[in-house]
Design a protein that fits this description.
Layout: H1 7-10, H2 16-34, H3 45-63, E1 70-73, E2 82-85, E3 88-94, H4 109-117, E4 127-134, E5 140-148, E6 154-159, H5 190-204
Parallel strand pairs: 3-4
Antiparallel strand pairs: 1-2, 2-3, 4-5, 5-6
Amino acid sequence: MDDDFKPYDKYPSLTDERLSVIASALRDVRKNTLALYDPLNGDNEWSHGCRVYVRSCFTIRELSKKQLWLSLVAEAPKLRFTFAIDGIPIRFYKGAPDDPPDNYLITTYGELQQRQLFEGLRPLDKILRLAIETDREGQVSTVKLVELDEAGEAVGVHLVPFGTAPSNVVPIETKPVDLAPVELEPLETEEEQQDKKKEKKKKTQ
């Protein structure tokens, strides 16, 4: 498995900035939903997981209305959710990058349709998943983009940074200073120098 997998080398539209928008949104959804988890009143891992999933899908759906590069992929089962970054389909799951759930190992019908529309991706090319890893408290620890081959094996993993924004840094350059051209006086000949000395001597006499 390639731990140095750089998705933007193979998929130029999958920049860290765009992936970070999705990863940060998924992290925030899980954090906010965890605050609502109430096992004393009947909540369990299944109900909590369903709430997180539904809210995550809703959040990405809302993001797609604001980000031109983000779109939704139509899927037949209502609960199956696939989005696309500049046409490249991706799904997300909770779990380790090298151990995705069985139902995330296959290419969905929606992904196949999307790949036919997207020039440069073949139907049997590798599939992409976002693996959401959590700590003991249930908070998101990492989000990783995983590239799976046809056998469902993870062949590339990329750690997605949180909170990455497009760079607006403009390098500071010193403004050019306009200098007036240097004027050089012509050098005096020896005769001119002698004449000046004679005139100066006459004036002092």
